[in-house]
């Protein structure tokens, strides 16, 4: 209860300071980039529950549109409760659910706006991150690089994005976190009752799914005896509400398949995000 | 009498300045799907000098701009702002004041450094009534590639006011 109150308090504090970005899905990869010269701020509260424990984290992301197709971001965490045995995941592809500070570049390399409210576009993401903790799951942590690509369709009614990414942690003191290939698929829908014109509130619902394949970590120079890539598929709903410069999104992911011999089993992921476009 | 003369001169001057400008632009915008998109575009357009009002409609996919008197805004600048917001500026319906000139049976209107060439699909009954000189007209400006915007446009006149 005390932990929850602290989480809410910290979120409210964060929100009162600024605002954010959260134009698309909460967990999956997306494609939209900011306007040229646009700036936005996101504050997110995130939680990841395993069979043993539950993490709580606040995360902030500042984004700036260098051009209408090129966006730079930096995201920093405030860890409220870390997992001693953390599953290998990014958690949320746009804002990692682990304790990393991450800087990223989004490049929308393809865009075809072919109708009123309609467009196809593709975006590539390259990021570098540095951990805020010494070890994760007993493995010494180092910096990492992450790359992803996503493509999708947006309209006034339907949305769909598909993408995939890869994160690689460097070796540190004979330890190395396993790599993480992943894929995401998101479908979104805006019901008719929310088709009111700007500046009326704008809501949509997403069905999000993530597939993650964490590689085995190296501990003291030794690859885990179970040298087997884990497999995990998570699915869940998220909701996005937009009004003027503000956005709020919240949602959850639940495992529908897990085969992670090395990591703890996940139970769910929760996330809430407040966005403000400056 | 002298005062009256000054007023007449100033009136003529302000009239001639007002003649060469955009009055109203209904700009079609493709790819704009959400409230923050509309908010961002509206805010970007409002930053431009010379606007009286701006309204963005997601459902119409349009930005409705009324321009202030004595503005020096160009359609190129408006469409560039749309592009900077990540969308595609398509055709536009404009109301403009300008100087209509005829060069070898080709009509064009000059407005704030931009040339609007009257397209041949303008209805004949309008084409036959065109006369060189100052004019106020309504027309549909045809879509140009967002990456290759110039100060020359093709316009299909729909009404001469």
Give an overview of the whole structure.
The complex is a heterodimer of chains A (278) and B (161). Chain A has one helix at 2-17, and strands at 39-50, 54-65, 70-81, 100-115, 118-131, 135-136, 139-140, 144-154, 158-169, 180-189, 202-212, 218-219, 222-223, 231-243, 246-259, 266-277. With 278 residues, chain A is mostly beta strands. Chain A has one domain (2-277): monomeric porin ompg (Porin). Residues 4-22 of chain A have low confidence and may be disordered. Chain B has a single domain (13-160), classed as Alpha-Beta Plaits (2-Layer Sandwich). Helix content of chain B is 27%, strand content 42%. Chain B has 4 helices and 8 strands. Chain B starts with a helix and ends with a strand. The interface between A and B is medium-sized, with 38 and 27 residues.
Oligomer: heterodimer
Silhouette of chain B: globular
Beta-strand proportion of chain B: 35-45%
Return the CATH topology of chain A. Porin
How would you sum up the global shape of chain A?
Answer: globular
Please tally the helical runs of chain A, counting DSSP H or I stretches of 4 or more residues: 1
Mean pLDDT of chain A: 88
Q: Helix and strand layout, with pairings?
A:
The complex is a heterodimer of chains A (278) and B (161).
Chain A: H1 2-17, E1 39-50, E2 54-65, E3 70-81, E4 100-115, E5 118-131, E6 135-136, E7 139-140, E8 144-154, E9 158-169, E10 180-189, E11 202-212, E12 218-219, E13 222-223, E14 231-243, E15 246-259, E16 266-277
Chain B: H1 2-19, E1 21-30, H2 35-46, E2 51-57, E3 62-67, H3 75-84, E4 88-103, E5 106-111, E6 114-118, H4 124-127, E7 133-141, E8 152-160
Parallel strand pairs in B: 6-8
Antiparallel strand pairs in B: 1-3, 1-4, 2-3, 4-5, 4-7, 5-6, 7-8
């Amino acid at each position: 209860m005390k932990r929850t109150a602290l989480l809410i308090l910290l979120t409210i504090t964060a929100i009162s300071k600024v605002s954010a970005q959260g134009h698309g899905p909460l967990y999956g990869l997306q494609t939209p980039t900011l306007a040229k010269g646009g700036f936005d701020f996101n504050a997110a509260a995130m939680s990841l529950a395993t069979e043993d424990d539950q993490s709580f984290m606040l995360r902030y992301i500042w984004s700036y549109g260098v051009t209408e197709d090129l966006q730079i971001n930096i995201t920093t965490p405030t860890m409220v409760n870390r997992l001693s045995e953390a599953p290998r995941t990014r958690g949320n592809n746009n804002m990692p659910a682990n304790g990393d500070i991450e800087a990223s570049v989004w490049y929308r390399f393809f865009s075809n706006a072919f109708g009123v409210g309609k467009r196809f576009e593709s975006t590539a993401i390259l990021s570098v991150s540095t951990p805020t903790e010494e070890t994760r799951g007993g493995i010494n942590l180092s910096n990492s690089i992450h790359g992803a690509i996503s493509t999708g369709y947006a309209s006034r009614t339907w949305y769909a994005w598909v993408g995939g990414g890869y994160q690689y942690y460097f070796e540190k003191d004979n330890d190395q976190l396993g790599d993480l290939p992943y894929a995401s698929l998101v479908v979104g829908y805006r019901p008719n009752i929310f088709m009111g014109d700007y500046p009326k509130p704008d809501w949509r619902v997403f069905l999000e799914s993530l597939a993650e394949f964490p590689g085995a970590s190296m501990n003291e120079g030794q690859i885990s005896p179970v040298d087997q890539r884990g497999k995990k598929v998570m699915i869940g709903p998220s909701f996005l509400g937009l009004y003027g410069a503000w956005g709020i999104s919240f949602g959850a992911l639940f495992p529908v398949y897990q085969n992670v011999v090395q990591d703890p089993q996940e139970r769910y992921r929760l996330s809430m995000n407040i966005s403000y476009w400056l | 009498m002298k005062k009256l003369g000054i007023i007449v001169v100033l009136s003529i001057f302000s009239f001639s300045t007002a003649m060469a400008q955009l009055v109203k632009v209904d700009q079609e915008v493709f790819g704009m799907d959400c409230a923050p998109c509309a908010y961002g575009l509206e805010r970007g357009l409002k930053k431009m000098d010379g606007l009286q009002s701006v309204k963005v409609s997601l459902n119409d996919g349009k930005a409705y701009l009324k321009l202030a008197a004595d503005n020096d805004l160009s359609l190129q600048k408006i469409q560039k702002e749309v592009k900077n917001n990540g969308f595609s500026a398509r055709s536009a319906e404009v109301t403009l004041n300008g100087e209509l000139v005829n060069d070898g049976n080709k009509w064009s209107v000059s407005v704030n450094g931009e040339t609007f060439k009257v397209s041949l699909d303008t209805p004949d009954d309008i084409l036959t009534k065109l006369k060189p000189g100052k004019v106020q007209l309504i027309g549909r400006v045809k879509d140009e590639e967002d990456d290759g915007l110039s100060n020359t446009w093709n316009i299909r006149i729909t009404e001469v006011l």
